[in-house]
Hints:
Layout: H1 5-33, H2 51-57, H3 60-93, H4 99-106, H5 114-128, H6 134-157, H7 163-170, H8 175-204, H9 207-212, H10 219-229, H11 234-257
Amino acid sequence: MMVNDKSIVWILKIYLLIIFVFIFMPIITSVVFSFNSDRFPSLPLGHFTWNWYDKVYYDPETWDAIRTSIIVALSASVLATIIGFCTAYTDFRYNFRFKNAYLALALLPPTIPLIILALAMLAWFSKLGISGQIWALIIAHTVLGAPFAMAIIRLRLQQIDKDLESAAWNLGASEWATMRHVIIPFALPSIISALCLTMAVSFDEFAIAWFVSGLNKSVPVVILEILQGNIDPQINAIGSFVFATTMTLVVIAQLFLFTKKPNNH
């Protein structure tokens, strides 16, 4: 029995739809129950309410966690993007001995299990005397996010005409001027994309934050602490906020990542 191309397309579309439903249904359910008046997540639903969001809004511990998460996410994303840009440009422009080892080391953190990475960072930060400080969390999330920034920016630099830099040098531009007026403008969409994506990674990360944050709790850490206590619908409200924030950052990152390459002429 032959299957035509249209049937294959429809099968793939249905398969993709099933995957999306499987991934997003629990999240959608959590969002729905965040507006449910009943304390326990059960059917039929109670009436619509903002009560759980009000409790989150007037909870100082939650605001402290949000403030910590924002500070860490902003700081780590900037540092990770700077490091990622430097790494990507080094890979793009230069050939040197042990370059493969250099790239393997730069891309290593995401390949390490987060628990192992968190334990290693906890031990290292304890020796440095900064364990539990917000700087420790910023450094940890920078290490985690830099490889993502590097990969995104390197993908953009792959599209540039390598003769543009040589042309700028021949016209009298210095290396810094070329970087400022040629490389950075070309890579700017990927830089913004890397900023948003690494910010989302930091804002949503839990395992490392649990080990190194100390009293500077991030939002995911607060969610776990609430879960360990009892069933509290505030979790649905906080989770909805985290999901909305993360998805917004990811969508912005995607929009900039797929920005068309500018005309080089």
